[in-house]
TrEMBL record:
It comes from Cellulomonas edaphi. Residues 173-187 have a biased composition (Low complexity). Belongs to the Dps family. This is DNA starvation/stationary phase protection protein. The lineage of its organism: Bacteria, Bacillati, Actinomycetota, Actinomycetes, Micrococcales. InterPro entries: DPS_DNA-bd (IPR002177), DPS_DNA-bd_CS (IPR023188), Ferritin-like (IPR012347), Ferritin-like_SF (IPR009078), Ferritin_DPS_dom (IPR008331).
Length: 187
């Protein structure tokens, strides 16, 4: 008898087990990038101070790009024969990190914290790409494509935190709040 947790169909040449495994990896990325898109908008609304407009306007194209990534991930899950879960309750119930911790703050403080956010998202996205490498080239390619953009956006953020000598003001930080404080101190 067919297992109930396996898709009844998946993409040609993958087994239902492989399809389910790839979809499960993608579901974690759906949650992470939906969370990132919401967090970026939160920063867009809460940034204040002399560099307001530069950061406010830098963030929106990142939101648009990340939303497109989420859509592509969800549609790949459906293509694999599995139902993508995109509800807010499921996002909060399944994520493994806390809500973004900073409200109204200076541009440089938010960028310090956003550096930490991007580090987490990119590390997990790279791991997900590796996890599907042997199973599904198409999903691997999708995730690698996202990394091209995510790492570029991360550089946009880090360029604000970088000294002329090439070091980052957030280099010793391990939390969003710590990174925000470190970035603001060097402003
Ligand atoms: Fe806006």
């Amino acid at each position: 008898m067919a297992r109930k947790d396996l898709p009844t169909f998946t993409v040609p040449s993958l087994t239902p087990e492989d399809g389910a495994q790839v979809a499960a990896v993608l579901q974690t990325r759906l949650v992470a990038l939906n969370d990132l898109a919401l967090t970026l908008k939160h920063i867009h609304w809460n940034v204040v101070g002399p560099h307001f407009i530069a950061v406010h306007e830098m963030i929106d194209p990142q939101v648009d790009a990340v939303r497109l990534m989420v859509d592509a991930i969800a549609e790949r899950i459906a293509t694999l024969g599995v139902a993508p879960v995109g509800t807010p309750g499921a996002l909060v119930a399944t994520r493994t990190w806390d809500d973004y911790s900073i409200g109204r703050a200076s541009a440089i403080a938010h960028l310090g914290a956003l550096d930490e956010v991007y580090v987490g998202v990119i590390e997990d996205h790279r791991k997900a790409a590796k996890d599907v490498e042997e199973l599904d080239d198409v999903t691997n390619d999708l995730l690698i494509g996202h990394l091209h953009e995510l790492e570029l956006f991360h550089w946009f953020v880090r360029a604000h935190l970088e000294s002329a000598g090439g070091s980052l003001s957030t280099e010793n930080a391990t939390t969003e709040k710590g990174a925000a404080r470190a970035a603001a101190r060097k402003e």
